[in-house]
Specification:
The complex is a heterodimer of chains A (45) and B (223).
Chain A (H helix, E strand, L loop, with lengths): L1 H25 L19
Chain B lengths: L2 H17 L3 H31 L2 H18 L7 H21 L6 H22 L12 H32 L2 H19 L3 H13 L4 H8 L1
Helix pairs in contact in B: 1-2, 2-3, 2-4, 3-4, 3-6, 3-7, 4-7, 5-6, 5-7, 6-7, 7-8
The chains are: A mainly alpha (45), B mainly alpha (223).
Chain lengths: 45, 223
């Protein structure tokens, strides 16, 4: 029961963070004044 | 590696190991977590400093207007996430003070002139320079550059429309809050457009270098 809940929370976190990462990559830069290096799988050549 | 980076990577590692994700997916999660933490930290820093200076609403509106335009237009960057938060905090705090104690207190006709000049400058910069890439995000894809320029212009145009409506409400209700929001929006996008030109680069890079960053050193090394 507890493990199932943890898994659901982790899945939700993964979906949200992936969405955030993808939308950030689609824009020109970061929200603030710092731009970290993009992950290889999201990088546009 | 900085602290936010470490926390993001640890968080991504925990989620990834629980869901049995591969390395690429873990990197994406770490990038997303970094985006979340850095954004929250920047907003909290600006809000705290704005509160301290008594310009919370002004600095938040200015920063949101600038940050949204920044998503489309790019611009100069600090070399460390902490420098980013501190520079943002100082710049938006100072701009908040300028709006509250200077721009709003001048004669209405001059406020209109100021906003019109700001928008003219922003449109000029957007057409000529936008988007501006960085070392970590060079923006070489021509289609993407074209799309970002269009989005920047559309956002600026929509902010101009919002400012006209707010000014109209101010004229008809004499409620200074409408004019304050309008001036904050135009100041925010003005600041963002300045970060696309040499003056903004000098300001950000000087502050970054003062705080131990390496933008100026990097630029010299690349010459």
């Amino acid at each position: 029961m507890k493990k199932g809940l943890v898994l659901k929370v982790m899945t939700l976190a993964a979906v949200m963070l992936s969405f955030l990462a993808t939308t950030t990559t689609a824009s020109a830069c970061w929200w603030g004044l710092y731009q970290p290096e993009e992950p290889n799988s999201l990088r546009e050549e | 590696m900085n602290r936010i980076d470490k926390i993001s990577k640890s968080f991504a590692s925990i989620v990834s190991s629980n869901l049995s994700l591969d390395h690429d997916q873990e990197e994406v999660l770490a990038y997303g977590a970094f985006a979340l933490f850095q954004t929250v930290l920047s907003i909290l820093a600006i809000a705290a400093f704005g509160l301290l200076l008594g310009v919370l609403a002004e600095s938040m509106i200015i920063s949101f207007a600038a940050a949204i335009l920044r998503k489309f237009s790019g611009g100069v960057h600090a070399t460390k996430p902490l420098n980013c938060a501190v520079i943002g905090m100082i710049i938006f705090g100072v701009l908040g003070l300028l709006v509250k104690h200077l721009f709003i207190n001048i004669e209405f006709v001059y406020v209109i002139g100021l906003m019109a000049s700001e928008f003219a400058f922003v449109f000029y910069v957007m057409i000529k320079y936008c988007p501006v890439g960085s070392v970590n995000k060079p923006l070489k894809n021509l289609d993407k550059r074209k799309r970002l320029k269009q989005q920047s212009l559309m956002f600026t145009l929509s902010m101009l429309a919002v400012n006209i409506v707010l000014t109209y409400f101010y004229v008809h209700t004499n409620n200074i809050n409408f004019l304050t929001v309008a001036v904050c929006i135009s100041t925010g996008i003005l600041w963002q457009s300045i970060t696309l030109v040499s003056l903004g680069h000098i300001i950000i890079e000087s502050l970054d270098t003062f705080m131990g960053g390496t933008t100026i050193l990097n630029r010299r090394a690349n010459k």
